[in-house]
């Protein structure tokens, strides 16, 4: 089974997949204590933005055998009370799992996954159970969510 080493999130190594901003240590342009518009999320849908809660779990083995992608929607993740690890692959016609990378996202860091980026549910890495806010256009999970079961030789494990 292929192992993917989770790496620290940086602007350079994540720019192919999206962008991020630390909400707990805001930097940059501000109006006093208000730091506006540091993460831009455009979608090609007319649906309202929905905000959802996702419960994530710490696992002894972070095995991935299923991935998803969205053709018209960027996805936003904000770990609220735990650091998480995400796995992503760039948009491509073959959904090439060999291009997958894993990133550690500190709690309070909001991450935008670009349209078409292959991913699935993150894993908690500091708490047994954690909570992640997910923002997607409403009903994306019904109208623009494509699940791909990985073949046995494509299944991978994320390691820290």
Structure description:
The protein is mainly beta and 160 residues long. It has a single domain, classed as Ureidoglycolate hydrolase (Jelly Rolls). The protein is 5% helix and 42% strand. It is built from two helices and 13 strands. A six-stranded mixed beta sheet has the order 4-13-1-8-7-10, with no helix packed on it.
List keywords for this structure.
six-stranded mixed β-sheet; mainly beta; Jelly Rolls; 160 residues; 13 strands
Short description:
The chain is mainly beta and about 160 residues long. It contains 2 helices and 13 strands; from the N terminus they run βαββββββββββαββ. The chain has helices at about 10-15, 140-145, and strands at about 1-10, 20, 50-55, 60-65, 65-70, 75-80, 85-90, 100-105, 110-115, 125, 130-135, 145-150, 155-160.
Structural class label: mainly beta
Q: Gyration radius, to the nearest Å?
A: 15 Å
| CATH architecture verdict | Sandwich
Which strand order do you get reading across the main beta sheet?
Answer: 4-13-1-8-7-10
Give the helix tally: 2
SSE order and pairing:
Blueprint: E1 2-8, H1 11-14, E2 18-22, E3 49-57, E4 62-64, E5 66-69, E6 75-79, E7 84-88, E8 101-105, E9 109-113, E10 123-124, E11 129-137, H2 140-143, E12 146-149, E13 156-159
